[in-house]
Each structure stands twice: as structure tokens, then as C-alpha cells.
Fold this sequence. Notes:
By secondary structure, this protein is α+β, with helices and mostly antiparallel strands. It folds into two domains: about 1-40, no CATH class; about 55-190, no CATH class. Helices cover about 25% and strands about 35% of the residues. The protein has an eight-stranded antiparallel beta sheet with strand order 4-3-2-1-5-6-7-8. α2 packs antiparallel against α4 (about 135-145). The chain starts with a helix and ends with a strand. This is PepSY domain-containing protein. It holds the Pfam family PepSY.
Amino acid sequence: MRKGTRASLLIVAAVATVATACDRGGTPPAGQDQPPPPTVTTTTPETRTRGQDDGAVEVARALRTAAGALPNGRAFDLEQETRNGERVWEVKVASEGREFTLDVSADGTQVVSRDEDNDPDDDVQKVAQTQVDAATAAESAAERERGRVTDVDLDTLGDGTLVWEVDLVRQDGARIEVKIDARTGDVTQNR
């Protein structure tokens, strides 16, 4: 192949590459108008799934917010409380061998208070053995039972299985507890 032909082929390839990049949203060559940016819709793990009510989303968000507020934080207990007339989620979190209690806003987005417990619960060690976090367990239970989560707790069954106990209220007012294996995510029992 002659030098001139090879150079021409390289130029054609470069022009084709630039044109393809422009068609795919790349930067067009200088002097050309920029196309409008594409509209992008994203979803997050907090996106409502079939059967979940908004309470499950708030609970999962509160658990993740509390865990994220501390180094290596792992939430292991959640209850709904009222503080100074305001509804909050009280979340216990293990962080580097220590236990903290955090109050998280009702919508699950902000930590409003934090206290360290000087006498950590044995759940601080247990939560390190889990493969499924409390937020995922709460979401799973709410989707399965189509209920509003009111409480999440880590417990050990008689056979040694580590489970998340998720208390829910169904739309008909019935209360139910779902136990989810903290290592596999499987539902171990409902009652």
C-alpha cells in the first residue's frame, strides 16, 4: 500500500470516528452547534416497588441515613418514636464496635440527634455477621406482606439462625411479623 493511500484511509477513519461520536452524544467538531443533552431518568434503591407503601421507603431511607452517618455504620434496630411532638425513627447503629442511637426525621432523610451507648448491646457483634442489611430486609418484608413497617430488629432463632424481625401493619389493620434470614434474605417465617 502506498503512503498516500494509507494516510487517506487514516483520515477517513478519523472523520468517521468523530461523526459516530457526534451521533452518540459526543462532542461535535469545533464550529458546529451542540445538540441538546439527552433527558435521563434514573431510579434508586428507594424507588417504590409493587406492593410497598411509602412507609417502607421511609423506613429503608431512615436505616440507610443512620448507617451512613457513622464510619462503617450498620443499622440493627429501628422503632418509631415521638420526640417533642415530632415523629422520628429511632435507629440503633453499630460503628467500629460501638453502639449509637440516632433519631432520624420521619421522611428518613436527616439525622436529628445522636447518642453513644456506653454499654453496647450484643447485636453490635451480631450485625457484623449479616449479609443482608436491615433496610433491604424491611423492603423485602413490606413488599411480601404489603404492609407498613413499624419495627425492625436483629435476633437469633433457637437453631442459631440470625434473622431480621420486621413488624408490619397491613392495610386491613392486621399486625404481622416477618422473619428474614440475615445471611440469605430468605423469609424464614411469618406470624
